[in-house]
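Exercise 7b. C-alpha cells:
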C-alpha cells in the first residue's frame, strides 16, 4: 500500500515554486543579487537550482501518484492517458502564457506576441513529465534507472561526437554546440524572441528527462516500507553521493544549465534529494507547524501559481497617476538589488493571496 500524502513533498514543491517566482519576478536582473540571476554559461547559482528541483519533485510525484492509482485499481493504460492529458494541458497553457503579454502602459488591455513560442518552462515540464511517466509506467523502477543512464549516455555521445556544421564535434562554446544546433534546425520559425541559444529548447531535453527520472527513483525510496529514519538516511546519503558524482563529472563536462549537461543533471539531483531529505526531517511525522503552511498551499497548486505569477509580475510595473511602484517607491527606499528583490516579493505575495483564495474553493492545478 502506498504511503499517505507526504506534506514534505508539497512543502518542497511550494518552496521551489516560491523561489522560481522570486527569481523570475526580479524587476531588473542586471541589478539583482548575483545568486538570483542565472550563470552566464558554465557554473551555477541559486537561480540555476530551481528548474531541476521542480522536474525532480515532478518525478517524485509520478512515483507516488502511480502507486496510489494502482492501489485503487487503475490500469496502466489509464495512467498513460492521464499523463498524456495532463501534459497536453500544461503544454497548451505554456504556449498561451507565452503568447499573452500585459503592456505596462496599456493596462488593463492584454496584448499578444507576434508568433507562437513552442518552447518555454511549462512546455519543457510537460514534455519531461510525459516521457518520464511513460518510461516509469511501462518499465518500472529498473527502467527509470536505465533511462537515467541511457539518456545521459546518448546525450553525451551526441554532444561529443556529432559533427556540428561549422563547429565540429565536442564543442561546448556558447554559439557552437550540439543542443544549439538542434534547436536551430528544429525550432527555426517557431520563436518570437531571439534566434540565439534557447535554454528551454529541445536540444538539451534528454538529460532534463533524466532529472524527472531521478525523482522517480527517489519516490521509490519514499514508498519503501522502511522506517522514516532509514528513508531519510538513504535519501540524504544518495543526495550527497550524487553531489560528489556531479562534481567529479564536471572535471570532464562542465556544470551548465543552458546545455543541461550530465554533470548538471546529476549534481542538481543530488542537491534536490538532499533538500527533500531535510524537508522530510522538518515536516513529516511532526505536529503541524504554521511556518510551512504557505509553502504547502503553493505546492498544492504549483502550476497555477506559476501562471498567475507570469500575469501578476507585470502589474506592479503599471504607472498609477504617473507614479511607478518601482521607480518612485522601491528604488527610493532601497538599493537596486534590494529594490528588485522587494518587487519580486510583492509579486510572490500577490500570487500567494490568489492561491489561498483558490485553495479555499478547492481549485487546484498541479502535477
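Sequence design result:
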Amino acid at each position: 500500500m502506498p504511503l499517505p500524502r507526504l506534506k514534505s513533498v508539497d512543502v518542497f514543491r511550494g518552496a521551489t515554486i516560491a523561489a522560481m517566482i522570486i527569481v523570475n519576478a526580479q524587476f531588473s536582473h542586471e541589478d539583482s543579487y548575483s545568486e538570483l540571476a542565472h550563470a552566464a554559461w558554465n557554473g551555477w547559482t541559486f537561480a540555476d537550482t530551481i528548474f531541476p528541483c521542480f522536474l525532480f519533485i515532478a518525478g517524485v510525484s509520478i512515483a507516488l501518484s502511480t502507486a496510489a492509482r494502482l492501489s485503487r485499481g487503475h490500469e496502466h493504460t489509464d495512467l498513460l492517458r492521464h499523463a498524456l492529458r495532463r501534459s497536453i494541458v500544461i503544454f497548451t497553457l505554456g504556449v498561451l502564457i507565452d503568447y499573452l503579454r500585459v503592456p505596462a502602459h496599456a493596462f488593463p488591455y492584454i496584448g499578444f506576441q507576434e508568433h507562437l513560442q513552442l518552447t518555454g518552462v511549462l512546455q519543457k515540464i510537460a514534455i519531461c513529465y510525459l516521457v518520464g511517466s511513460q518510461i516509469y509506467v511501462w518499465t518500472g523502477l529498473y527502467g527509470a534507472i536505465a533511462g537515467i543512464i541511457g539518456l545521459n549516455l546518448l546525450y553525451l555521445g551526441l554532444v561529443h561526437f556529432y559533427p556540428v556544421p561549422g563547429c565540429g564535434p565536442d564543442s561546448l562554446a556558447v554559439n557552437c554546440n550540439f543542443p544549439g544546433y538542434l534547436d536551430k534546425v528544429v525550432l527555426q520559425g517557431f520563436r518570437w524572441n531571439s534566434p540565439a541559444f534557447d535554454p528551454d529548447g529541445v536540444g538539451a531535453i534528454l538529460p532534463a528527462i533524466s532529472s524527472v527520472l531521478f525523482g522517480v527513483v527517489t519516490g521509490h525510496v519514499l514508498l519503501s516500507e522502511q522506517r522514516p529514519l532509514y528513508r531519510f538516511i538513504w535519501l540524504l546519503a544518495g543526495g550527497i553521493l550524487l553531489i560528489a558524482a556531479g562534481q567529479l563529472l564536471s572535471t570532464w563536462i562542465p556544470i551548465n544549465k543552458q546545455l543541461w549537461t550530465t554533470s548538471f543533471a546529476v549534481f542538481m539531483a543530488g542537491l534536490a534529494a538532499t533538500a527533500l531529505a531535510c524537508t522530510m526531517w522538518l515536516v513529516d511525522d511532526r505536529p503541524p507547524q504554521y511556518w510551512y503552511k504557505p509553502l504547502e498551499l503553493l505546492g498544492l497548486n504549483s502550476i497555477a501559481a506559476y501562471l498567475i505569477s507570469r500575469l501578476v509580475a507585470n502589474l506592479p510595473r503599471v504607472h498609477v497617476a504617473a507614479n511607478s511602484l518601482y521607480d518612485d517607491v522601491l528604488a527610493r527606499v532601497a538599493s537596486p538589488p534590494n529594490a528588485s528583490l522587494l518587487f519580486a516579493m510583492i509579486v510572490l505575495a500577490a500570487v500567494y493571496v490568489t492561491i489561498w483564495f483558490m485553495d479555499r474553493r478547492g481549485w487546484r492545478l498541479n502535477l
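Instructor comment: The chain has twelve helices and four strands. Strands lie at 100-101, 111-112, 172-173, 176-177.
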